[in-house]
Design a protein that fits this description.
The chain is an alpha/beta fold. The protein is built from 22 helices and 22 strands. The structure holds ligand C2E and calcium ion (2 copies).
Length: 572
């Protein structure tokens, strides 16, 4: 029942209006003077107010003004009811915020019609606002819980899910969490656009869910990390099998509209026996395991262990140590020979940076290069690497050793620098090293961003005599057809393919088709990560030009490499 407050100093009028309203099922409150009316409006909080204008002391305008200024009453529909006619009064009332105006004497029909219209209108408006508020609340809830781009539930939903699992499980059951990180997925929407990205994610999520046989069980942890909670697998052995199956499923190329993508991932696993580990901890353990897996390269997985935790804490201190590493002269270069497949001679090397820190010992570049890329230190570090290579080439020359070309690894951040080409050239000039002795290794994923600018830089480098190689080929998003947009001399097949060529038919056929396609394009091919004779045989049979890997030599300190160069034959 709607409540109406009727205000008039004439008792008879108040009575008459109240009667009409009561007959029409309105609950009525009355006031005979302005001050009283204001109090009443606050207490009674009517759905509508009918108010006379001319009243002694506090008149209708004053009442309206007071009500509009009070948060508790400012939105109540307000109709003036008065014998005062004329546009002047009407306008004054409207200006103060009256909703309608009824001239006395008013008929019952007129009164009821005006009241109904006003109440309806008010109802519509409040409903509209209510809906809007509800919608905003809903939107907020969605954006808090679901990833904007993929629509996948986010980490906080995962935490809730893990809590739910923990409370629903029997004491003996095990809760496991897999965190899957896709290789080079960061900024992928910028590179491919949203549609291709969504198709890719959809496909990969489907593959993962096929392997786990649980639908709608993928949670978005970040752009490139996804969490999969499992409470139906309890042994380490079956989790291991599952992780392997997921990794292989991800490696099957994904066909998008205009291209085929090769994806890779790493997995971190954490397990909560008897559901004893808190959800947040289960997630952070899986993250720690994931980081450890990433250090072993892609297509790897690791279970969380206590000893990994110490390592993860060190990671935080690593960055500050890295800032001081250059001035403290803590970097060195190791060299790994590149072998000519046909005669097994050394035909060059790859310089690989090492960091020897007094507190941490020898730190792998897979650990500190990503940090250096993020904080920009890669620029001075890269310059140091190039200068050291050039000085080394001169040392070999001075010692009468034929210097074989050296490959240097270049990160995206370096290549994206405006002065990149100039800074390389000036170091080569300063050290008087021939450009032909330098080979630039770039990963294919670097090329996709800003391709025109980068292509121009590569043209310049090659014109000056340097060689350009595409590193880690097969792990990024680009196809060989796409790469033909870039000028390059050499393709380096990623070690994750070479690892499997002797045992896995799919890897072998991929490697061999890369070799033949590259040859058709007039590009040399090198296989990295060569460790066994079976691999060498296959690579030889398919005319892979060069090889590099532990089978021939690990990356070694310069003195050891100098010996290898002197003999130019390895003790195989
Ligand atoms: P990368 O360019 O793909 O280098 C090859 C990595 O594979 C090296 O790891 C090498 O030691 C390892 N490797 C070589 N042969 C084998 C093998 O037969 N089996 C196995 N399992 N591994 C093999 P490393 O030295 O730890 O370097 C890791 C990555 O760090 C490099 O990957 C490269 O991306 C980056 N990096 C190294 N030095 C530099 C540098 O001076 N500048 C930049 N920007 N990145 C660097
Ligand atoms: Ca490399
Ligand atoms: Ca590589």
């Amino acid at each position: 029942m709607n409540k109406i407050l009727v205000i008039d100093n004439e008792f008879e009028i108040v009575e008459m209006i109240s009667d009409i309203l009561s007959i029409h099922d309105y609950e009525v409150k009355t006031a005979l003077d302005g001050k009283d009316a204001i109090k009443s409006a606050i207490q009674f909080h009517p759905d509508l107010i009918l108010c006379d204008i001319s009243m002694p002391e506090t008149n209708g305008y004053a009442v309206l003004k007071a009500l509009r200024n009070d948060k508790r009453t400012h939105a109540i529909p307000f109709i003036f009811l008065t014998a005062l006619g004329g546009m002047h009064n009407l306008r004054k009332g409207m200006r103060l915020g009256a909703d309608d105006y009824l001239a006395k004497p008013v008929s019952a029909e007129e009164l009821i019609a005006a009241v109904r219209t006003r109440l309806e209108k008010h109802h519509q408006i409040t409903n509209h606002y209510k809906n809007e508020i509800e919608q905003t609340k809903y939107d907020l809830e969605i954006s808090r819980n679901y990833d904007e781009t993929t629509g996948l539930p986010k980490r906080i939903v995962l935490e809730r899910k893990l809590k739910q699992h923990a409370t629903n499980t029997t004491p003996s059951s095990t809760l496991a969490l897999l965190i899957i990180k896709f290789n080079r997925f960061k900024n992928i929407t910028d590179i491919f656009g949203k549609n291709d990205y969504l198709r890719l994610i959809h496909e990969l999520v489907e593959r993962i869910e096929n392997e786990t046989s649980i639908e709608k069980n993928t949670y978005s942890i970040s752009d490139d990390e996804f969490g999969i909670p499992l409470n139906n697998i309890s042994t380490r052995k079956s989790l291991t099998q599952l992780a392997k199956k997921i990794l292989s499923a991800i490696r099957i190329p994904v066909a998008l509209e205009n291209r085929e993508l090769n994806c890779n991932a790493s997995i971190g696993l954490s397990v909560s026996p008897n559901s004893s580990i808190k959800p947040e901890k289960l997630i952070s353990n899986a993250e720690i395991a994931l980081n450890a897996a990433l250090e072993d390269g892609f297509n790897t997985f690791k279970f969380y262990e206590e000893k990994l935790k110490k390592h993860a804490i060190d990671q935080i201190n690593l960055e500050s140590a890295l800032h001081k590493a250059l001035e403290r002269d803590e970097f060195t270069l190791y060299y790994q020979p590149k072998i000519n497949t046909s005669n097994q001679n050394i035909i060059g090397s790859e310089a690989l940076i090492r960091w020897e820190n007094p507190n941490y010992g020898l730190i792998s570049p897979t650990q500190f290069i990503p940090i250096a890329e993020e904080n920009g230190l890669i620029i001075p570090i890269g310059e140091w690497v190039l200068e050291s290579i050039c000085n080394q080439l001169n040392d070999w020359k001075r010692a009468g050793i034929d210097p074989a070309p050296v490959a240097i690894n270049i990160s995206a951040r370096q290549l994206e620098q405006k002065k990149f080409v100039d800074s390389i050239s000036s170091i080569l000039e300063k050290t008087k090293v021939e450009n032909e002795l330098l080979e630039i290794e770039l990963t294919e994923s670097i090329l996709i961003k800003n391709s025109q600018k980068i292509s121009k830089k590569l043209v310049k480098l090659r014109k000056s005599g340097m060689k350009v190689a595409i590193d880690d080929f097969g792990t990024g998003y680009s196809s060989l057809a796409y790469l033909t947009n870039f000028p390059f001399d050499k393709l380096k097949i990623d070690q994750s393919f070479i690892r499997d060529i002797a045992t896995d038919k799919a890897a072998a056929s991929l490697a061999t088709s890369i070799i033949s396609m590259a040859h058709r394009l007039g590009v040399r091919v090198i296989a990295e990560g060569v460790e066994t004779e079976d691999q060498i045989k296959l690579l030889k049979d398919h005319k892979c030009d060069e090889m590099q890997g532990y089978y021939f030599s690990k990356p070694v300190p310069v003195d050891r490499f100098t010996d290898l160069l002197k003999n130019n034959s390895l003790s195989l």
